[in-house]
Specification:
globular; alpha+beta; 6-stranded antiparallel sheet
Length: 295
């Protein structure tokens, strides 16, 4: 973890030295057992064979919060081949959609399989480190790729750090994004909702580097490694945003914030924020930042 130092606070202050895993399989096992918590991805299969023609094995297969297929590749340390290897498997996956959907159907059910989103399959590379050439290579590709650095601390701590995150959608100009948001809002209630939707879009995209926007039929997700905000299409007088913030940590305000944990809604997140005016967007900034940090 670049620049991160970890200390114990019990007794005398002692630094916990970061280390790499003994073998690559140790990292893979930790992630696969906790994939939804760590990456926001539902685990499907480990060491998935690509058949006699390709002759390879995909480290991990999963499905993210927005229905996108995900390949996860692991390396214990620095390995210049991890990105190319992952892209090779990603191309295989796109060419074998029916096989992947069959796997989803077996693991997660027919409804989930019917909602697989093929417009944005993802590759997540988890390694001890990456070079500047890796980061540059990722930014040159027209694929959704996340480079994630890991470190182990002590006997029971795992750290993950996103080094680079690129989505095919990030190549779309911001003006085009604004037009898409405006068109979605224009049919609801004129200029006020257009302005509100654009303000929310700018606020979420402007939180930091590596924010990707994912379009779904019933919501728009803003994503780092995981979703941190989901925005539903504007209603007549308000815009609903769902955040990955624990409602128990928030002083809920009727008509502005609501605990929706356990309640059905589109998108992901347990805190609902109701926005009616640009001032509400300003009020929600701290909540946006908290959710972004948690992702």
């Amino acid at each position: 973890m670049a620049g991160l130092r970890l200390f114990t606070t019990k007794g005398s202050m002692t630094e916990v030295t970061p280390r790499l895993a003994e073998v690559e399989a140790d990292v893979q096992g930790l992630v696969e057992e906790n994939m939804e918590t760590l990456l926001g991805v539902r685990f499907l299969a480990s060491e998935y064979g690509t058949g006699p023609v390709h002759g390879g094995r995909i480290d991990s297969l999963g499905l993210d919060e927005n229905g996108s297929p995900v390949i996860v590749e692991y390396k214990r340390g620095v390995d210049a081949g991890v990105i190319n290897q992952g892209l090779f498997y990603l191309s295989w996956l796109v060419d074998h959609r029916a096989e992947f959907e069959h796997l989803v159907r077996d693991r997660l059910g027919a409804t989930t399989a019917s909602q697989v989103r093929w417009s944005g399959p993802r590759l997540i590379c988890i390694a001890g480190d990456f070079t500047r050439y890796d980061v540059h290579a990722v930014r040159e590709h027209r694929r959704s790729i996340d480079l994630v650095r890991y470190r182990l601390f002590g006997s029971d701590l795992l750290g993950l750090e996103t080094v680079a995150s690129v989505s095919g959608a990030t190549r779309v100009a911001r003006q085009a994004r604004r037009q898409a948001v405006a068109q979605a809002a224009a049919g609801v209630q004129g200029a006020s909702m257009v302005e509100l939707a654009s303000a929310v879009d700018d606020a979420l995209l402007g939180l930091g580097d590596g924010v990707n926007r994912v379009e779904r039929k019933m919501y728009r997700a803003y994503q780092r490694l995981r979703n941190f905000a989901c925005v539903c299409p504007p209603q007549r007088s308000k815009l609903l945003v769902y955040l990955k913030v624990d409602p128990k940590d928030v002083d809920l305000v009727p008509g502005f914030t609501r605990d929706v944990s356990g309640l059905g809604h589109h998108g992901t997140g347990d805190l609902e924020v109701q926005l009616r005016t640009p001032r509400d967007v300003e009020r929600a900034q701290d909540l946006f930042r908290a959710s972004y940090a948690a992702a």
